[in-house]
Design goal:
The chain has helices spanning 13-24, 41-50, 60-76, 83-103, 143-146, 158-167, 189-195; strands at 4-8, 28-35, 54-58, 107-109, 114-119, 122-127, 149-150, 203-207, 212-216, 239-244, 249-253, 259-270, 280-284, 292-297, 300-308, 314-319, 322-329. It is α/β, with parallel strands linked by helices. Strand 2 (28-35), helix 2 (41-50) and strand 3 form a beta-alpha-beta unit. Helix 1 crosses helix 6 (158-167) and helix 3 (60-76) packs antiparallel against helix 4 (83-103). The longest helix is centred in the first third of the chain and has 21 residues, at 83-103. The model has no long low-confidence stretch (mean pLDDT 94).
Amino acid sequence: MSKSAVVGISGGVDSAVCAALLLEQGYDVTGVLLDTGGNSSRAEEVCAALSIPLIIADAREKLESLVIEPFIDGYKNCLTPNPCVICNPLVKYSMLVETADKLGAFHIATGHYAGVAERGGVHYIRKGCPGRDQSYMLYRLPEEIISRCLFPVGDMPKDNVRAKAAELKLSVADAPDSMEICFVPDGDYAAFIRSRGHSMPEGDIVDVDGNILGRHRGLFNYTVGQRRGLGVPGAERKYVISLDAERNQVVLGDNSLLYRHEITLRDIILRDFEPLNGEELQVKVRHSPASYRAVIDGSTVRFADGVKVSPGQSAVFYMGDFVVGGGFIL
């Protein structure tokens, strides 16, 4: 098997150390920066410091059509989408595979905190370093891509990753973690949507009994579970319980009304891990360390205890450390 690998270089410390570790393991490494319209200087610095070539691949058209447009549509349909779970299989990893194929390389690698495990000839994403685990974001990767993935920093504590970068005198050793969506760097998704020429009409903010409490600025400015910035006097302890597109209303209620024992999913992915239906699994409903006991029955997830969920996010199934499926929450 080829010892060549392409590495997704973002200009951050994780991908830089990922490339460095592969070099130490004897791989012939090529860096690939997916151009989304940002600055490429840090990625260029990293590759120059490691003496590896850098290919800049234009991802803007794919990002726009496959990620950004569905992201905007999701919010306009009262959902809370997570664009990374879509971008990874449809843009990032698919483009890394395309580049690897052109170069005759088998392996692709990123700085994600995750791993790959094999069971019965099937490759699975598995959890990475506790507290940093990013397996949730990778659950939609197809098995043929997972089988080619390397995650050299996947099990390393972040402090160790930074220490390795400092040892190698990489300029990104102290680079801050990227916490926001790449195309919404300031985190203000509603302003981003408005900047693209989209708007929604104002409407009423109501309580669960239909009493009018105030006015909203357009439904995409709100998400289920939101408490701050509602602009309603005396609603300090109220949360957005639902977004009613038909009535164009934001519905507020007590925190207790956010908990659900059962959810329905769409576009479910299931791995060849049997038995699955009827067996209790751990399920994550957002990108966080928290997981919840649940049973999967077709497209229905039944939780042992009440769980707060946001429609549009993903529910991801775990059997031990293995990612065995998931889907989008309705």
